[in-house]
Specification:
alpha/beta, 7-stranded parallel sheet, 17 helices, about 45% helix
Length: about 375
């Protein structure tokens, strides 16, 4: 049996993970701990449903409410960042699913790795912000570090059995194109929050959905891939693939291309990370290629979607610059969601912050956290 703690259990990835676990045969995966930011009612319901040993809420007031609601159930409740760290490192868990949004998930993930736990990560910022530090910790601890994102999981699956990275010609990450694919610059200027949140293929949290609409999500995946797979930036490409059936591809030096395909359902890569290296039936429907009919591809437009270019630039600069881009994006997306700025102001704001930053090379964890704070 694999015992799992879930960081970000009340978000989209966390809820899908719990659905996957519920559908697995009894005794496959046990949920021992849950952590979230402030969703009290939902985490209490999850705790009781899965009979977990402990929960944590990053906001102290939310933790106090949860403690009152769970009194007498035997479930321990912790509050604040220290509480989240307790769930990330709890002795009963041998795997941590890292799905907290933003840079808040960085330290808990590093501490989980240091405590010897396998990590299934959905939090892009873990590698975008701290790629060099995190991969050093993974190597030092000798744990499994497994991607949950569908595109990064696809690359991971395509590379299974490929031990010689010199055989790779390039990694090809696919993007749906989001809700604004084909829109004119004038239409993008007038884009509303409601329009941006209507993703054509995936059901995700609001932050990731907006990042998908700007293509920053894909830029983050480029940086993730660079660190996780040890592939140079100039060998990582992005293709827009509206059907979202091919989740990513690897081209090898002999001209062969291996692609991973499935219906667009996050439960598939989540389950593969949780049960790795075994494959088991999932609640997702099977892929019917005859029903899909055709698979199309196009180059992303860097003029209409400059966030992708900004992510490449940040990766090329390196050091603390990716952390700055991640932090600026976090604030800009929140401002857009609250109606404070327009859609096309997101990349302009990020670029303005990048221009003011003096990057630090080979940063420590404290350097990364300071860059995140400064940028925000």
């Amino acid at each position: 049996m694999r015992r799992v703690s879930i960081l970000g259990s009340t978000g989209s990835i966390g809820r899908n993970a719990l659905d996957v676990i519920k559908h697995l045969p009894p005794g496959e995966v046990e949920v021992v701990g849950l952590a979230a930011r402030r969703s009290v009612e939902r985490i209490v319901e999850q705790a009781l449903d899965f009979s977990v040993k402990a929960v944590a809420l990053a906001e102290e007031e939310a933790a106090e409410r949860a403690a009152r609601m769970l009194k007498g159930t035997g479930v321990q409740v912790f509050g604040g960042q220290e509480g989240v760290l307790r769930i990330a490192t709890m002795e009963e868990a041998d795997m941590v699913l890292s799905a907290m949004v933003g840079s808040a998930g960085l330290i808990p993930t590093i501490e989980a790795i240091r405590s010897g736990k396998d990590v299934a990560f959905a939090n892009k910022e873990v590698l975008v912000v701290g790629g060099e530090v995190v991969m050093e910790e993974v190597k030092r601890s000798g744990v499994n570090f497994l991607p949950v994102d569908s595109e990064i999981s696809a690359i991971f699956q395509c590379l299974e059995g490929c031990r010689d990275r010199s055989q790779i010609k390039r990694l090809i990450l696919t993007a749906s194109g989001g809700p604004f694919r084909g829109c004119s610059p004038e239409e993008l200027e007038k884009a509303t929050v409601q329009q941006a949140l209507k993703h054509p293929r995936w059901k995700m949290g609001s932050k990731v959905t907006i990042d998908s609409a700007t293509l920053m999500n894909k830029g983050f995946e480029v940086i993730e891939s660079m660190w996780l797979f040890g592939v140079d930036l100039d060998r990582i490409d992005v293709l827009v693939h509206p059907q979202s059936v091919i989740h990513s591809m690897v081209e090898f030096v002999d001209g062969s291309v291996i692609a991973q395909m499935s219906v667009p359902d996050m439960r598939i890569p989540i389950q593969y990370a949780l049960t790795y290296p075994r494959r088991m039936p999932t609640p997702a429907r099977p892929l019917d290629l005859a029903e899909v009919g055709e698979l199309t591809f196009e180059e992303p437009d860097p003029e209409r979607f400059p966030c992708l270019k900004l992510a490449y630039e940040a990766a090329e600069v390196g050091g603390t610059m990716p952390a700055v881009v991640s932090a600026a994006d976090e604030v800009a997306v929140e401002a857009f969601l609250r109606g404070r700025i327009g859609f096309t102001a997101i990349p302009r704001l990020i670029k303005a912050v990048m221009d003011r930053h003096v990057p630090i090379s080979s940063p420590s964890v404290s350097d990364l956290l300071e860059a995140d704070r400064w940028a925000k």
